[in-house]
Specification:
Rossmann fold, 5-stranded parallel sheet
């Protein structure tokens, strides 16, 4: 019987601490880590047979339909941190609302849980949550899979590590 995967939501800036914690958890459970980046500026049109997503921009004048690609710099970070670890992992690109897409993938893959990093409180993050909503709140209230939130390291934890 195949172990259910762990889904890790990958923001535009991934905290290495969050990736390490998710990888440690996946390793301890013998689970595959499905690293998902969702582009909220586009919406999904179609899921192709290989799992890739064809999407279009929210603003119809800003571009054409395209196949979603996982951001290269984030893929490099994943490879640097997870390469050689022996952990089975996969990068997946999606489009649309992050909460909805992570929930959809959790259902599609019968995930064991969804892991998200919690950002430091800042004015920019607060405004972003007011305008777009909180992905963590969306997931904890609107789907059936467990959600693990990993807080950021504090300055004294960073100095001691």
């Amino acid at each position: 019987m195949e172990t259910r995967p762990i889904i890790l939501g990958i923001p535009d800036r991934l905290d290495p601490h969050v990736l390490d914690a998710a990888a440690d958890l996946a390793g301890a459970l013998g689970a595959r880590l499905l690293c998902v980046h969702v582009d909220p500026t586009r919406y999904p049109l179609e899921e192709l047979p290989d799992g890739t997503i064809r999407s279009a921009p929210l603003d119809p004048e800003s571009g054409d339909e395209a196949i979603e690609r996982f951001p290269a710099r984030l893929l490099q970070q994943l490879e640097a941190q997870l390469g050689g670890s022996g952990l089975e992992w996969q990068a997946h690109a999606a489009a649309g609302g992050p909460g909805q897409q992570l929930s959809h993938l959790a259902l599609q893959h019968d995930a064991a849980l969804i892991v998200l990093g919690v950002r430091e409180r800042s004015m920019a993050n607060t405004i972003g949550e007011l305008l777009n909503g909180s992905v963590a709140v969306h997931l904890t209230h609107r789907q059936r899979h467990p959600v693990l939130l990993i807080p950021p390291l504090r300055a004294e934890q960073i100095r001691n590590s």
